[in-house]
Write a structure and sequence with these properties.
heterodimer, A: about 110 residues, mainly beta, seven-stranded mixed sheet, three-stranded antiparallel sheet, 10 strands, about 0% helix, B: about 120 residues, globular
Chain lengths: ~110, ~120
């Protein structure tokens, strides 16, 4: 199965700053198959980015995704207080569909 | 607005069967894969399996021998049965909708766009 490794495990940043989250795949992926979710405590994950770089409906443009092959990045340009959460990457390139272990964004 | 509402027993003893059901409201039931995902304590999310309206199912090989996903199109519901649970199965289980978006240039892209509220399942003797 494809293993997704997210780094860092925890990222400490301040509101207004820029955050860059990494997701590395154990095998090359089509960029069409890489997805990012946001999860807050006690809630289900929320779709942010699909196809590596397409924002889901209602997602602010401060969220952007990029990457190809084995290296993908989620960037949050200007952190708002509501952005502090756990971020998961996930791949649909090959079944079983797998998730990274998550990056926690904390103040 | 599509809504997924799930329910099922939250406390089980080892060797029992976990049964969860997810109902889909305000949306088409066909054209999607209906999915079960779990989150074990302190770990990431794990895709368990999925089924479409034609009852074609796919499973995670790590659980395939203990897992059945079924569908009831007359009620817009789908279900999970996980047999012979152990303490290692303790976690939060989610149902979700997998959508496939077709783009003339980019090709197809999949994502989980709607999720249930989650069910905390505890396995303990």
């Amino acid at each position: 199965e494809i293993v997704l490794t997210q780094s860092p495990g925890t990222l400490s940043v301040s509101p207004g700053e820029r955050a860059t989250l990494s997701c590395r795949a154990s095998q090359s992926l089509s960029s069409r198959s890489l997805v990012w979710y946001q999860q807050k405590p006690g809630q289900a994950p929320r779709l942010l980015i699909y196809g590596a770089s397409s924002r889901a409906a209602g997602i602010p443009d401060r969220f952007s995704g990029s990457g190809s092959g084995t290296d993908f990045t989620l960037t949050i340009s200007r952190l708002e207080p509501e952005d502090f959460a756990v971020y998961h990457c996930q791949q649909f390139g090959r079944s079983p569909y797998t998730f990274g272990q998550g990056t926690k964004l904390e103040i | 607005q599509v809504q997924l509402q799930q329910w099922g027993a939250g406390l089980l003893k080892p060797s029992e069967t976990l049964s969860l059901t997810c109902a889909v409201y305000n949306g088409s039931f066909s054209g999607y894969y209906w999915t079960w995902i779990r989150q074990l304590p302190g770990k990431g999310l794990e895709w368990l399996g999925e089924i479409n309206h034609s009852a074609s199912a796919n499973y995670n090989p790590s659980l395939q021998s203990r897992l059945t996903v079924s569908i009831d199109t007359s009620r817009n519901q789908f279900s999970l049965n996980l047999y012979s649970v152990t303490a290692a199965d303790t976690g939060v289980f989610y149902c979700a909708r997998r959508r496939r978006l077709y783009h003339p240039v980019s090709g197809s892209m999949d994502y989980f766009d709607y999720w249930g509220q989650g069910t905390l399942v505890t396995v303990s003797s």
